[in-house]
Design brief:
Chain lengths: ~100, ~120
């Protein structure tokens, strides 16, 4: 089974900051990675699929990159509504999550 | 636009079987290319994939739960269901249904998701 490890697990940042979350796969997965955002009490929401394709309706400040074993999710300028937990996913595996908190 | 909605008991006794149904609206569950999925989230924890089913009835389960899980589909009702047997407190979680989109069998993602339903295992 593929293991996905996210870093950091917790991230404190301010509105307007640029932040990057990393997801590392235990073996090469080409560009087959998705990213989700989850807010408390809500279901996860798809942000990016195929490593870098932005889901329709997702703001352009979100971007994804990477291939093989290392992937990144970048938020170019944090907005108040972006403080949430983020997960990466490939097949039936999810990363452990990165909680993004307001500094 | 496709929407999913979970339904079922919120409280299950230990050793009994957890049963949930996901109703799909806005689209047909028989549309090819989609796998209808169950995912759970223990309180305060991350996401755990349980399994998924194709409209034809083909199923794929998480190996760690395979011995206790059954997922079925009812295309006439546009629903799919989850049964998890011999539950314990460790099965207390929010259960989500979601549509898995797959391209060439490897590019895949889950969208949309149901709102989730909390199932508590307790006597």
């Amino acid at each position: 089974d593929i293991q996905l490890t996210q870093s950091p697990s917790f991230l404190s940042a301010s509105v307007g900051d640029r932040v990057t979350i990393t997801c590392r796969a235990s073996q090469g997965i080409s560009s087959y990675l998705a990213w989700y955002q989850q807010k408390p009490g809500k279901a996860p929401k798809l942000l990016i699929y195929a490593a870098s394709t932005l889901q329709s309706g997702v703001p352009s400040r979100f971007s994804g990159s990477g291939s093989g074993t290392e992937f990144t999710l970048t938020i170019s300028s944090l907005q108040p509504e972006d403080f949430a937990t983020y997960y990466c996913q490939q097949l039936g595996s999810f990363g452990q999550g990165t909680k993004l908190e307001i500094k | 636009q496709v929407q999913l909605q979970e339904s079922g008991p919120g409280l299950v006794k230990p050793s009994q079987t957890l049963s949930l149904t996901c109703t799909v609206s806005g689209g047909s569950i028989s549309s090819g290319g989609y796998y209808w999925s169950w995912i759970r989230q223990h309180p305060g924890k991350g996401l755990e994939w349980i399994g998924y089913i194709y409209y034809s009835g083909s199923t794929y389960y998480n190996p760690s739960l395979k011995s206790r899980v059954t997922i079925s589909v009812d295309t006439s009702k546009n629903q799919f269901s989850l049964k998890l047997s011999s539950v314990t407190a460790a099965d207390t979680a929010v259960y989500y249904c979601a549509r898995r989109i797959t391209i060439f069998g490897v590019v895949n993602w889950f969208d949309p998701w149901g709102q989730g339903t909390l199932v508590t295992v307790s006597s």
